[in-house]
TrEMBL record:
GO cellular component: cell envelope
Protein name per the record: Cytochrome c peroxidase
Residue intervals of the Cytochrome c domain: 55-185, 242-419
Keyword Nucleotide-binding: no
Subcellular location: Cell envelope
Sorted UniProt keywords: Heme, Iron, Metal-binding, Oxidoreductase, Peroxidase, Signal
Signal peptide: 1-36
GO terms, molecular function: cytochrome-c peroxidase activity; electron transfer activity; heme binding; metal ion binding
Listed transmembrane segments: none
Organism listed in the record: Paraburkholderia susongensis
Main subcellular localisation: other
Amino acid sequence: MRPTARASARWAGLATAVVTVLATVASGSLSTGAEAAPTLVPTPAPADAKPVYSDAAALGKLMFFDPSLSASGKMSCASCHSPEHAYGPPNGLAAQLGGADLREQGTRAVPSLRYVLNRTPIWTHAQAASLSERLSETDNAPVGGFGWDGRFNYLHEQATFPLFDPNEMANKDPAALLAKMQSAPYAARFKEVFGQNIFADPTKAFTQAMYAIERFELEDPSFHPYTSKFDYYLDGKVQLTAQELRGKKLFDDPAGGNCASCHIDQPGVNGAHPLFTDFNFQALGVPRNAELKANADPKYFDMGLCGPLRKDQADDKKNCGLFKSVSLRNTATRHVFFHNGRFHTLKDALRFYVQRDTNPQKWYPKDAHGKVDKFNDLPVALRVNVDTTDEPLTRKAGERPIWSERDIDDVAAFLATLSDGYDLKAKQPQ
Ligand code: HEC
Ligand code: HEC
């Protein structure tokens, strides 16, 4: 439904690659590899940049890993955003269990915090000025913001959600949180950094605490290591295997997988390594997930942009069912996929894309009349919002899926090159 923004992003990426190739030809250093263009982009490795590390960030780090800041006393930010799992979930649960007794289930899968935090644009959904522009789809697509529904613009705002959400860290109020902070081992340090009397002003203390978490999330290099095989490939330090390259081709092909139109894999204008997301919103029609307790109520629907967690976009029914496109970096290390955690293997997530329309009976249950209840995680009237115009989501029941099982293996192999911690030395031919 939103081809304009994506198409232009895609062309911008291609234009960059073309310019780079031309510049390289001019300088006489063009090599002849088939996939030469990306490897030629001179990339200033962000990981090499001198790290800034503020006192606030150091405190934020202590808070991020501190389970005493929860009602249970056992859950920290890192319980769900595990640093050993690319700051994603440490298990395959569709949604994690939190609350005072660690038995309350959330309603969404935990996203990875790697890479996106300092590059997520502020939420925008600028309305086009004229009605004709609005009708012609040049109306800006919604983009950016934190959360699957983009409802937080700043990390310091976002952090207040898990700290007080009854299904997560479940603190009663800021006063309860500040009381815990005052008896934390880093309380003295907090006073040194923010002022000896900081806790006497609860509003100010709370603001500084959220700011500290934000600084940690923005400044700590562990959130953006750029140590995947794909990063080294972009830097020309390693080649992809024939299978990985084949997977990349399938991923890129606009008439095939078309994945790169939303999960951008071209370096940015300044040579920045790609994050495999365009931060746009889309309704993919992911099947309802019975693993979520909230879904026991047939009237409950998580509709992303139009609620229930997000409140400000509910009036525009076109927003219902749309969720933010996520980064596919480290996706091969996950055991839970999509906003509702419906899939538990990467290959199933890929199969869903290419077989959603060709084999709907495989993904959706039958309704009372024996008809396949396609897009069953949205109320019937809102199912028109589901994307059926972008490849590969355009096919009809009974047609051949755009990818074979072998293709799926190849794309999965390509996506596995996005996992951090590739050992460049061990794999280098001598
Ligand atoms: C119980 C599990 C859990 C805990 C604990 C938790 N989170 Fe999350 N986190 C999630 C889930 C689920 C989402 C997606 C939420 C949504 O879309 O509404 C999320 C989303 C986020 C995002 C947005 C990421 C993006 O790309 O949009 C950030 C940032 C974040 N969490 C930081 C934190 C911080 C900081 C803490 C500790 C104060 C924390 N989380 C504690 C489960 C958790
Ligand atoms: C039209 C834009 C669009 C296209 C095309 C697209 N995606 Fe996505 N992708 C999204 C959005 C939006 C989400 C999150 C949707 C949700 O959870 O409801 C997503 C989620 C995913 C996830 C789950 C990641 C996670 O951490 O949960 C995977 C894996 C994925 N996409 C792979 C692909 C592959 C492979 C292709 C090509 C076959 C593809 N995508 C094509 C927009 C797109």
